[in-house]
Amino acid sequence: MRRWNGWGDETTVVELPSHGEAFLAELIGPGQALADASLEQVLAKVPASRLSAHPLVSLDAEARLRHARGQSLADWLAMRSGEFGVFPDGVAFPESAAQIRQLLAWASQQDLIVIAYGGGTSVAGHINPQASDKPVLTLSLERMGKLIEIDDDSLIATFGPGANGPQVESQLRARGYTLGHYPQSWELSTLGGWVASRSSGQQSLRYGRIEQLFAGGKVETFAGTLEIPSFPASAAGPDLRELLLGSEGRFGIISEVKVRISRLAEQENFYAVFMPDWQQALAGIRRLAQARVPLSMLRLSNAGETRTQLALAGHPQQIAWLEKYLALRGAREGKCMLTFGVTGSRTQNGASLKQAKALLKGFGGVFSGTLLGKKWVENRFRFPYLRHGLWSAGYAVDTLETATDWSNVDSLLNKVEVSLRDGLGEEGERVHVFTHLSHVYGEGSSIYTTYVFRPGNSYEQALARWQRLKHAASQTIVANGGTISHQHGVGRDHAPYLAVEKGELGMAALKALSAHFDPEQRLAPGVLLEQ
Amino acid sequence: MRRWNGWGDETTVVELPSHGEAFLAELIGPGQALADASLEQVLAKVPASRLSAHPLVSLDAEARLRHARGQSLADWLAMRSGEFGVFPDGVAFPESAAQIRQLLAWASQQDLIVIAYGGGTSVAGHINPQASDKPVLTLSLERMGKLIEIDDDSLIATFGPGANGPQVESQLRARGYTLGHYPQSWELSTLGGWVASRSSGQQSLRYGRIEQLFAGGKVETFAGTLEIPSFPASAAGPDLRELLLGSEGRFGIISEVKVRISRLAEQENFYAVFMPDWQQALAGIRRLAQARVPLSMLRLSNAGETRTQLALAGHPQQIAWLEKYLALRGAREGKCMLTFGVTGSRTQNGASLKQAKALLKGFGGVFSGTLLGKKWVENRFRFPYLRHGLWSAGYAVDTLETATDWSNVDSLLNKVEVSLRDGLGEEGERVHVFTHLSHVYGEGSSIYTTYVFRPGNSYEQALARWQRLKHAASQTIVANGGTISHQHGVGRDHAPYLAVEKGELGMAALKALSAHFDPEQRLAPGVLLEQ
């Protein structure tokens, strides 16, 4: 069963190894565990619903509780403390586009706020109801997860919007296909959510971001149904797909999604290369991206992340041997782990591997083979579970991300790390910070930073610390040429920072679109656009 | 000097070879040449301007004449007959964003219509002034063609919007870079025009369409300046770049363009392969695209185009030997020419060529080496000049295009060809029609059809024939799952067909954006959106 107050399935438990705990204690001090609220305690707090009965809507307290918060660290603290804040007044489970339209009509008639809910994995406050005079209806798409049809010639699959990662892949793999979209949240997040929030997957280098995968579909809005046909490309005016991508539930409810799929590749392998230092690593990965070497994944950990990963990896003896070997070959203190994947035919993969190895060798890279690559594949969706292990040990962990042009990557990365590392300095509290680049482009790269801090003595203190850190980093990002999000979206948490990059006129254009599709402003008010 | 009544530079003359004339005469009857008007005759028809004087605006009759029409066949007939229709009241030549803003303010104050003019190469009526109570100011960007800066790390170049193809490439190549964007109109069309009309180049398979190349920039609108920063990717809400791409001068005047450039490749080669028949050719090219073989260009002529190209190629003796060789290897009547390019390092190109040859051999392809590939490179921008040669011989030629998913390519292509081939059947007039696929994607392909017909005995008859053919094909395209344009844009000529693919709600969204950026509706009214 899915956890009501954390990530993923209850049966998956990821603990922090004891040497990992010692590593963190040395860096930022011993952990400070806070007590969790129980489900019963929270259920007792769910207020009476303000909704009248509707056959498609559940007013059940536990359903409302389970759709009240996402997965940001603020959500985590709310769930763990039991102080959930606002609950939706009801949760609807439509099974068709017609039922979505029926629910929207009802919302209009009953004067409701409507929040679209996919997998509830937002880390930016997309699905959290806010206090409002109007009752809030959360609209879960979980019963609309079926593969509807496949066009085998055009490699287009049509899905319901509620299909989560495993549902998408299992239905496609049974017919020899893959979508190849693997965000970290893949186990729970959904196709409709990926489209609405401009999601990016770990193998976007081969398969593309959701912008490239999304071919068309249907959206139910308060102004009618928008149907976007699939074309391989078009010059017929602005692309309506791109209006929907990133609209975050403000324009309508996605009721059908067409995606570009691929035949399953003959072969896929992942490799790790250790680069002697950050500057060489950065130059090497940039060159790989700009030389269009056809890799399927490319990820570079900075020295801090490399050290942390090796320390938390388990098997300290094996790691010690690896480090000895690397040191002999020139990758010592300050080394950076670069992971890459090749996916395709054996011929293609052979050619790609050869090019990548030769190029990285020119930047001092030490090739370590497939073992760590295999580890990466095994653990690719495990990271969100680690929040539990860290929490039990008395540490809070969060991640944030941006993207910028190559000429600014190093500078922005450093500023973001410093803003976090020094963020609790006034309290004399240390923060452990490390970073990787996980999505590289010819023009630049994403920057993905993890930070670990101690929650302090109370939930209030923990939340205040997080808010201070989050604001410092967000402010640093937009003031220094980064986008406020490369992959997590805007939601409520990033909305105050959006105008810096969109400009006044751009924000007004988005508001004009929101007013066009949702004249009474019922859809997720405050998400994406502050008003 | 640029021709005032046709394509390109006056010194470039492409004539129809005599055996080509015989080929066409047999297919659709002997040519019917019509007399051309002279420049003096047309200049005498330019009416007095309704504009008051402005230091940045020319009221000169020849300048107004030279900015009155684009390059559609309707434009051609207007220019050749001397019946230009409406002339702009003046042409402005701003040299900076500040001057563009000054001109927009003046237009507002003087109650003018404003039309942005890049290279004047539209084949869909984008830049043609319409009869209006308000004077029309055409705003040419030709003095804003400079390279402003290059970010060598991020491979981003910033240009003025008026840089045409040769200006873009010469300024980049001097520093070791290329944009790699080569639409057929490359000699005259401009960067700003490419962005505004969602242009696609012949090597988009490697470099991407303009959507992928356009990284950001500035637009001067009646509601203020929109500045779009460059990010490699972003999940921060809908992408404002995508609003601008395809907006066709309805939202504002582009004053600066940032593009993603590439280092010049080590090596580039083009090859021709003859496929035994259309079905094998179609299956082969689809498989090449879906297998992600890293080619830089891929183009497939159907049997009709292959036959026509070989007939019009010149060197009939060489062609006869080629056909004998191909027949021995299995490519006889009905054969289809496939051209592909590889661009990159020697290693990459070797690997790509090997994969492409092996794959196409599996579909019966006969590899003919690089000779015809070299011919293609030599002649890649020559086709628009051929309209002159055909016209002198008494034939009118036009092209039109669409894109659709692979499952629909063959069917739609046939329907479009039939709509043209039978389009003048009531008059007992034959039309010669042939097609190629020039932009292929995993999902589907563009379809680019050329049709040659006789103009009849008068310009009125020629225009009526063209209108009948254009309408029949456009109607066929949108009624059968094609986009009204893959690369030429919407303009005025395609605007009546746009609602079929955008839907009522989508059209209203585009109108809401137009009203947002241009509240008094001064910018190119009737272009893209019929109102």
From TrEMBL, chains A, B:
One of its GO biological process terms is: lipid biosynthetic process
Q: Does the keyword Flavoprotein apply?
A: yes
Q: Which cofactor does it need?
A: FAD
Chain residues that bind substrate: R387
UniProt keyword terms in alphabetical order: FAD, Flavoprotein
| Important for enzyme activity, annotated site positions | R299
Q: What highest taxon heads this organism's lineage?
A: Bacteria
Which sites bind FAD?
A: E248, G249, R250, F251, G252, I253, I254
A GO MF label: FAD binding
Which family would the database say this protein is a member of? Answer: Belongs to the FAD-binding oxidoreductase/transferase type 4 family.
Q: What is this protein called?
A: Alkyldihydroxyacetonephosphate synthase
Organism field: Pseudomonas borbori
